[in-house]
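Encode chain A's predicted structure.
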Amino acid sequence: MTSLRKNKTILIDREAASALELVKCDLLQPLNGLMSQAQKRSVIETGFLTDKTFPIPFILAPAGAKNERIIKSLEIGEEITILCDDEEFATLIVEETFQTDPSIRTKHIFGTSDITHPEVERAIKRLGSWAISGEYTIVHAQSHQNLKNKKTIKKAKELINAKHTTALIMSANPLHRANEHLIRQAIDTSDLLVIFLLRPYNTNNLDYTLREESLEFFINNFLPKNRVLVVPLEQSYLFAGYHEHIINAIVTKNYGCDRLTICRDQIGLGIFYDENTGKSIIDNLVGIDLEIKLESEYVYCNECTTLVGKNTCPHGQHHQISYHADSILELLEVGLLPPSILIRKEISAFLLSKLFPDRFKKLEKLYYDIFPVEGLLKEHTENDFYLELMKLYQTTSFT
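Encoded structure for chain A:
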């Protein structure tokens, strides 16, 4: 329902609302509110906010002719209502309105304003030319998940008296063997691991629930589960640009983590060498007390016959199998069972059974025709079918 007040209203999308919620939950400290025009200019020029690293301006400039018309008409001190999904989301006391250029703003966020870039194209459509700043109060949060997650992490730390808590941010789209190895490495050097599972606003991903269930299955069956937490993280525009690793560091620190693990092959990291020392964008962090560890990109080497870091394998790319999530996902999306060297068979079976429900017209007949059975009639699921099929793929006497 919409507000009964007679305030002027502007409309924002869920992505903008999630960013505003992050601020109110103190997860973007040192940021504590919408930036004024002067603060915006200062952050662009210096990359700092109150003597701490903050890479991009944080302003509210929603797209739409009606939004622009309303913002241009506002007076200082006026109260307005912010709507999200046609419901009252927040109220704001106007302190300033000012013009902003969406193309310049996207360049600050993504490092480019080229609309052929998919993220830039999407951002341009949701960014307006007039911004509004002022103190806002959230009156109807879509979710209190951020605060719940902070409490959950704090409780988990207290339960095991964790001295070091490591953050790992991933999509697990899908969860493959290199992801698993990265997770194990992070647990091995920490008391508690918090996996921030990205929940994006675009559709080029497995459903969040499927990715979360896959990850939980792996944790519950193959890891010390009292030392691992999965926390959803809305993948808004803040986490999409070439400053994403700095924003990741800020958010995970404010969630209560003191360490952050990043894989060297992640987009936007920008490894370079200075005086023969590998450095990246995260070496410029100031005022954020967080230990950041860069892990090697993991590959499978058919000479080493195991998963190895690229930096430790001497055999070269012609012996290495890389873990490209997009390609593995493409196999799953067309219904193919990926080799278990790429993705754990239990995860593949689960995902395919969800992506292609009721795929086989005569599953039981197919099951008993192909696989060895004990003679007992049992009801089988498609998940069972894929697991048994993988066993046949792994039979080697005829290969």
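The domain at 8-138 is CATH 3.10.400.10 (Sulfate adenylyltransferase).
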